[in-house]
Every structure is written in C-alpha cells, then in structure tokens.
UniProtKB/TrEMBL annotation:
Source species of the chain: Pendulispora brunnea
Pfam families the UniProt entry points to: ABC_tran (PF00005), oligo_HPY (PF08352)
ABC transporter domain sequence ranges: 9-260
Assigned protein family: Belongs to the ABC transporter superfamily.
SUPFAM superfamilies for this protein: P-loop containing nucleoside triphosphate hydrolases (SSF52540)
Protein name as catalogued: ABC transporter ATP-binding protein
Amino acid sequence: MALSTPPLLRVRDLVTSFRTEHGAVRAVDGVSFDIGPGQTVGVVGESGCGKSVTALSLLRLIPSPPGTIESGSIELRGMDLLRLTEREMRDVRGNEISMVFQEPMTSLNPVYTVGAQIVEAILLHQKVSRREAYDRTRELLRHVGISSPDTNVDAYPHQLSGGMRQRVMIAMALACRPALLIADEPTTALDVTIQAQILELIHQLQGELGMSILLITHDLGVIAEYTEHVIVMYAGRIVESGPVRQVLGRPRHPYTHGLMASVPRLAARKGPRDKQARLARLPTIEGMVPDLRHLPSGCRFADRCKLVIDACREKEPELLPVGSEEQFARCIRWQEVGA
Ligand SMILES: Nc1ncnc2c1ncn2[C@@H]1O[C@H](COP(=O)(O)OP(=O)(O)O)[C@@H](O)[C@H]1O
Ligand SMILES: [Mg+2]
C-alpha cells in the first residue's frame, strides 16, 4: 500500500485468548495488519486457525468468559477500539464496521419479517422516521438483488432460500453504509452457484459504495478472485501475507504452498488438464492444525512440513520480508518453498 494512504484499520499485536481447563490458549497470537480505504483484504487458513476470532475481536464480540482480548491495538482511523466504552463500541458496530456471518439463519430472528429486522437495524443507528427506514429497506433489498422486494420485505426468514437470506444479511450489514464490511465465510453454507452470486454481489457493492472489505475464507480460489491483499493464518499466527499476486504467484511459506496445491482452480495452472485426473490427484496437507493447548516449541507448522529441519523446531521463525518489501513469511527456508 502506498504510504500516502493511511489505513482505515490498523491492527497491531492482537492477542485474543480463551480460558480452558488447561489454562489460557491464544487463538489469535500477535496478529498485525492494515486495511486501506476501499481495499479488500483476505484472510485464509484451515478451520480452527483463528480467522473468526480475529474478526470478532475487531468488533469486540468475543464471548467473555471464556474469551479476552489480552493485548494489542485495533485502530479505526486512528481511534483505538479497545479503549472505547461498550456504548461507544455499539455505535461503531453496524455504523462503521459491519459483519456478515456464515450462517444467516443464526443471525436472523425467525419471528420477525426480514423487513422489520432491517428497519430496526436502520433505526438503531440513524435518525430517520420509521416510514423512511421502511422505504430504505425496500431499496436495500432491491439493491442486493432480492426478487420482488415489495413482497419479500414481509417474508419471514424461513420463507427465503439460503442465498436470499444471505442477501438479506448483506442488506442489513450495508444499511448504515459501513466503512468496513467483514464477511466471515459468507458463502460456505451455500451451494456453488449461489456462492459465486453472493461473492459477485459483495464485489459489485464494494465498487459502488467504496467500502473496505475483510473477506474470510478457507478457499484460496476465492482469495485469488476477490482480494488484493492476503493474510494466511495458521494456529493463531500470520504465517504469510502480501499482495495476492505475489503470494499466490510465489508462495514463500510451505503452508500457503500446501493450501494452493489443494485448490483445483489454482493447481490446474500447473497440473494435468483433465479435470478428473486433477481432482483424483489433488493433494491435501497431511496432518492437522496443532492443538493450541499443546503447541510445538518451534515453528507451529513443523510437524506437517516437507521442508522441516532441526532448526525449525528450536525457535519459532519471525514474520519477515521475503524477497520484496510487501511480502512476509514466517519460514527460515522460504527461498526453497515450491522449488
Ligand atoms: N468460544 C470459544 N471457546 C473456547 N475456545 C474458542 C472459542 N472460540 C474459538 N476458540 C478457539 O479458537 C480457535 C480458533 O477459532 P476460530 O477463529 O473460530 O477458527 P477459524 O479459523 O475456523 O475461524 C479454535 O480452534 C479454538 O481453540
Ligand atoms: Mg471461522
């Protein structure tokens, strides 16, 4: 990012932990990143790597207990969200930063119509009449591609398809024109065609509204298509980050490399052309994300890494520039990744 554009969001050394019977575990462990105005930043990693905890920390929605944001800072236009009162934070949520979750059914209230819920979201943050809020709601539903908004405004969540419910969630998230939209696996629960439609919709709305987006996914294909900058998370740590073209063009962490090899669309560039053959051969990274309660002493990826040497187990590598000023990786053998 050019130095002349100050970031919209600046996260530094964020640590979020959960109390367990074995002591506190750090689900997010020293995470730092920036999101520029209008920029789309992707966060990718397998399940349990700390993606959602990162997102929820930004909104201070970590369930407490057992969770706590232990340290770090989260600055929105220079204002540290971790220092705000709960009341001030409520103004930030929805107004400045909105979030779309994976499963809209759990975020929509089944006993109210979708229209009523969007109206309430608008009234909560803006000084407009109920009538105006209602008009805006129909306009929003139209904007997110809900068919017959004048009728569907009165539908209950269960009367809509999964894709339509997700559109409603997006309408609600956009009701107050947030500066930042966090989308946490917004399409994971949907079938493939609908997934693409929802991602296209978010992309199109971003173009129109100019908001920044933090797009969380376990799918590097989605990262490749929809984001400019990527953060790869593993066991609570950022293991690689940088401009998407650079990171996917030349991954410098074996974990990123392994994730790429398991995505058909990305692997296809190098692998055999025949789709069946490609799918049959598609490797996944062997092994599992380590239990946060029993982390290895050195590199957290060491047990699954093909490039592992003794030095990797002695000390955890730092996140350092790898070959360019913008790409960072946490690997002492970064020069050999993919060789
Ligand atoms: N409510 C919770 N209570 C205890 N531990 C939690 C809770 N939520 C998350 N964690 C811990 O944080 C880790 C990361 O979770 P999460 O951020 O949801 O992963 P993902 O990358 O799949 O979104 C989990 O593996 C778990 O150890
Ligand atoms: Mg998650």
